[in-house]
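Example record

The entry below shows one chain as it appears in the dataset: sequence first, then structure tokens.
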Amino acid sequence: MSFTKNSQNIYKSRYLFKRRLALLSGLISIAFLIVIGRFFYLQILKYDFYKDLSENNRIAVIPNVPNRGLILDRNGIIMADNYFVYSLEITPSKVTNLNKTIDNLKPIVELNAGDLKQFRKILKESSSLDSIPIKTHLSEIEAARFAAHKLRFEGVEIKSRLFRRYPKGAFASHLIGHINRINEEDKEVIKKLGWQQNYKGTDSIGKLGIEKYYEAKLHGTTGFQEVEIDANGNSVRILNSTPSIEGDAITLSIDSNLQEIAENAFNKYRGALVALNPKNGEVLAFVSRPNFDPNQFVGGIDVDEWKILNESLDKPMLNRAINGLYPPGSTIKPFVALAALENDIRKPPFNIKDPGFFTLPNSGHTYKDWKPFGHGTVDIVMAITISCDTFFYGLGIELGINKLSEFLSQFGFGQNTHIDMFGESAGLLPSPEWKQKRFKQPWYLGETVITSIGQGYTLVTPMQLAEAAATLANGGLMIQPRLIQSIKNSQTGKIETFKNKIVRELHFKPENLALVKEGMINVTQPGGTAASVGAGAPYKIAAKTGTAQVVEMKENQKYNPNRMNERHRDHALFIAYAPADEPTIAVAIIVENGGHGGSTAGPIARKLMDYYLLKKVSSNKEENKVNPLESEYHD
């Protein structure tokens, strides 16, 4: 019995052991199959993926940033170029203690507060993998001193970095614009345009002017190097290289000599000037004063410097030529006169007796002329010559605001000129519909009266005035203004030139156009409101002066600039073209708080025209003599 029981226990133990062994064998087999399957997945199915990943760990792709294209004036004078500098740079991801590293660098390389502030600013905007400059424009002594201590500073190295340079400083700054560091907004634009690959390694982009508008041409094409690296991240050899392609060279229509004369002529005044070739729309000079030094922005502008520029009462960052909005004053009168003639209103021999004021029909309200006791007998030619307000008050009423606005719009008022520059303002050409929408009020007859002399709601830019003057000079042919003359492809050397783009062709009766032009020529002749501007000129100048009020005068209050805050004085305006019989230059000028167009803005135009037409700097002594008419002129 005992033997039988022991036999059963042994049999049972063997059975349990065999079951456990079989179960363990099964588990081992399953585990083995899992391992085999994983090896198959990694070695066969995912071979290419992990091969590429391994290669990427071994190979670094380094972008080769291209040279930015040059910007030149029409005579080949360099307005923007590039140069290389030594830059001390830190890669934060490779530095254990950033603050300690910076402290240890100070005895070796001079780091001022501005350097550190700029570094911290860029650090916040950048990835920790980016190489960030902490000191640019290293001297040879500083570079040598750091090289001697290089082994102490992991993650810090000297690089040769390309910097943009504007050799003429603030000269033509609003025209050329500037580059600055790429920010988040720029990154969104780059992504939207699909430029991410081409901007790898690039830290700056065009922000204003030509630099921004022609960014795609100026930037160039980024090249790349595939570099084998060791375990410490040091390069071993170059495996493959694609060279970068420098940006195309932009040649502007600007004549830098003419530009310099224009800028210097403004002296202390604020304002803007645009000079065009009416035959092809090329911009010959483009001034906005005050200006700024674009070199301040290269590599990132200091916060304090930006604050000074941004908060200045003079607004040096405002591009007045395309963004400054001003009442046109009496510079609008030639266009109003042409509107009347084309609508068969007040054609010669029609004239009026000017008593020095205009009385609005059925209201008794009077509007004063700039000359208290009037001009006597005035026809349409004389009205332009002496800028008779009374004549144009009545003319505006007879035309009506709808016809007046519709006609002025043909000359581009209230519209963009579409010059090759971003951010242009369209100005304002008022109408009853606009006022109802804007103020929920009807249009009043008195508003038509002041619109006819360029006051009221009407606002224009200097660029619009220049385009309108050029169109008048062309007899109605409007050509789109442009700043570019040609683009030279950096690879092929091929030069792309640009054809004239006709915006519209206005058809006027020759006799009507002749009357308006006659009045404008007489403006610069004895008895005209800008007689001193034309004095002694060997060519004829067709022009119109203008004055735009900045603050409204009280009833019976006489305008006295000597008793006013300088910023409350009237703006001076001037439009002109020459030679009057075959125009090759048209100019629009606004001098802020300059007083009267004939005595302040007009001489600037004369200097430009003398240089452009005669190739000499004006030394006309007559231009400094004040015409008695101009000294009291206020329209």
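Notes for this example: The radius of gyration is 36 Å. The chain is about 40% helix and 20% strand.
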